[in-house]
Amino acid sequence: MTGHLHVVEKNLSPGATQAQQGACRLRVETLAKTFAGHAAIEDVSFDVHDGEFVAVLGPSGAGKTTLFRCMTGLLAPDNGGVWIDREDIATLRDRSRRRLAVVFQQFNLVSRLSALDNVLAGRLGYVPAWRGALRCFTRADRLLALECLDRVGLLAQAGQRADTLSGGQQQRVAIARALAQQPSLIVADEPVASLDPNAGAGVLELLRGIARTDGVGIVCSLHQVHFARAYADRIIGLSHGRIVIDGPSSEFDQAALERLYGHRDSAEPESVEPTT
Ligand SMILES: Nc1ncnc2c1ncn2[C@@H]1O[C@H](COP(=O)(O)OP(=O)(O)OP(=O)(O)O)[C@@H](O)[C@H]1O
Ligand SMILES: [Mg+2]
């Protein structure tokens, strides 16, 4: 990581803080979305490269979910765009969409299906529709799904119904499903918000491992600054819909924390060790 944390005063030139060796997995450019005259996000630009794990921080209402909904194509921005592997998300066809995997706060598993069948859903973008409808997957797809479950430590639970798994296990199945998609990019809006600290740390460790091992770009919003500092390579700070901080997580210091969340005398939820 060659960049230095910088406070963004004006527009961020995409990827300005990042080493440029890797392929650009995600480009977000001058993104804006307004609801009823209120700008939820404004002029948001950044790049994510392969193997990079980016945490998005910011107070409630800063625009994180709006940004994530635009990044996944759920919401059409008023201005700007999103490119995955240099393809415009607005025009991604079904088979290209599999390059984008989404992990949700509430896991979004099919509760009555087994862990394995949920992971196989990650292969739906690769099989003809009729096969998917009949859940008629190839042996290779099944082996891949089992491998993905193994990677998240849940091979023994392959046959267990999703709704009987713990929250931490369900999120691991969701990550295995994302892995089975063999994506270029994983985006996750608050993936650990429903988990206890240990399970949350386990999930973030898995995501970091996937970025490292598979060269996947990962963008993940969090409310826990200490998690972002421990697991992410880079922190993007959103405030009032704009990027105000973008840089290596190791350089996210007390001043950055206060800039992002404001200064509080007694009720500060977290503090940051001064960097030396
Ligand atoms: N569909 C919508 N209609 C109207 N306003 C919306 C809509 N979605 C978001 N907003 C507004 O946009 C702003 C940003 O909301 P957003 O959900 O993106 O924030 P957030 O950073 O994800 O917050 P949190 O940390 O609480 O999840 C808020 O003021 C919110 O009320
Ligand atoms: Mg949100």
TrEMBL record:
Membrane found in the keyword field: yes
Organism, scientific name: Afipia carboxidovorans (strain ATCC 49405 / DSM 1227 / KCTC 32145 / OM5) (Oligotropha carboxidovorans)
Example of a GO cellular component annotation carried by this entry: membrane
Function noted in UniProt: Involved in beta-(1-->2)glucan export. Transmembrane domains (TMD) form a pore in the inner membrane and the ATP-binding domain (NBD) is responsible for energy generation.
ABC transporter domain ranges (all copies): 26-265
Lineage: Bacteria, Pseudomonadati, Pseudomonadota, Alphaproteobacteria, Hyphomicrobiales
Keyword Membrane belongs to the record: yes
Keywords for the protein's UniProt record, in alphabetical order: ATP-binding, Cell membrane, Hydrolase, Membrane, Nucleotide-binding, Translocase, Transport
InterPro entries referenced in this protein's UniProt entry, alphabetically: AAA+_ATPase, ABC_transporter-like_ATP-bd, ABC_transporter-like_CS, ABC_transpr_PhnC, MetN_ABC_transporter-like, P-loop_NTPase
Record-stated family: Belongs to the ABC transporter superfamily.
Domain of life, source organism: Bacteria
Name listed for the protein in its UniProt record: ABC transporter, phosphonate transport protein PhnC
MF GO annotations: ABC-type phosphonate transporter activity; ATP binding; ATP hydrolysis activity
Entry EC no(s): 3.6.3.28
SMART domains: AAA
Pfam families: ABC_tran
